[in-house]
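#struct-queue
[09:14] JT: dropping the first one here, sequence first, then the structure tokens:
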Amino acid sequence: MSDLFSRGSSTNAQPDVQALKEQTMNAIRQELALANVQELMNKSGDRCYTKCITKPGDSLSNSEKQCLSRCFDRYMEAFNIVSRTYTSRLARERQQEATL
């Protein structure tokens, strides 16, 4: 670890620092993606429950099950659309930055 912070003239020091930086950024991206999915599930669960379960009881009726299923499907479809759009936007921005 002390090699990372040394100021020697080693030519391998720069690529190692760059690789470490990239690994750290990838780990952060993965953590953010996980947090976003967890937030989506929590919000969709809360909203779908509020919408579909009008009289909480010991079990779900068939109509409540069907409502929950459709509600979650809509949330996942919307999430997938937004994710694809966001990913393509990031890719376009990175490509534009690379050409500058």
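[09:21] JT: and here's the second one, same format:
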Amino acid sequence: MRTVRRLAGLLGAAALLVAVPGNAEAASPTYAGTTAIGTHNAYDKAKYPYFAQALDSGASLLELDVYTDSLSKRWRVSHSNPLGNDNNCEAAKTPGELYSKSRNQDFGGCLDNIAAWHQLHPDHRPIVFKVEMKNGFNNNGGLGPDEFDTLVRQKLGGIVYKPSDLLGSAYATLDAAARADAWPTRDALKGKVIFELIPGTVEQANPFDSYWTDEEYADHLRDLKAAGTLSEAQAFPAVLGAEPGDPRTSRYDASIRPWFVFFDGNAATYLDNGYDTSFYSANHYILIMTDAAGVSPAISSTDPTDAEVAARLSLLAAHHASLITSDWSAKSAAVLGSVTARS
């Protein structure tokens, strides 16, 4: 039965897809009512020589891997080197310096690139920056949630859409705000960026670390709200991993469950196991489905045809994804900038 539904989704792709290059929108649903495309590990020089080109790509999500380097008190951006930087972020703080400076900068350098690029494109599409905290925060070492917030706020200021923006003055928790669909429209989010935090592979493999990024940042949000200072928070923690039902229930203390409205898991795991993902769209949560190319029937993870991308976007939108990700950096901005209605 699932195969039949998938084939139907593929055949109906042309009818369902609204290909939207750049900022243009055929309608103005809330942000939670749309599905768009993101790029896995967008800091990789093999994908984009410069991070500004990743920003140019049209993708609605760009991923960065960040290590807390406690020896140097730096936030490193790299796939596998916790003590150094290996990335396409450049030493560019102004628009005129983009696409020309030395690369392999730290996380602050990547934020500088975003700020400079934003000056060139102040009405850009809303972009989610998915930050995998590879080895987690190190709060005792001065690289905790507070310091993360301070760095993002110093570099990007008012262009960040924050948890307090979703909460407004009407809701007590992010969960309550999401359930009420308090998200702005995509048009209202033009020129804004959103930070999503997930626990990293090194952190998860560390037998001495049981306090991961997701829980730590959710605790941070809860405590800031209690102190009346939630506006300081710059990011949304995500529940990582595809599970049936509400994965918050088995993982987190009741006091922090309402601070998760981002969910992030493998697309094939959701679909192949027949998980009922309508839970996410019914509550207006943001659901990120990764490895979109791996869903049966699998397509190229690097350079599928435009029609295959359109069909995959349509299929996963029908399964309630908000954002789908793969390694499709070779595709044009018109393709990566596609947006469709979320079922």
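[09:30] RK: nice, looked through the second one.
[09:31] RK: Residues 132 and 198 are 5 Å apart (CA to CA).
[09:31] JT: good to know. The first helix runs from residue 2 to 11.
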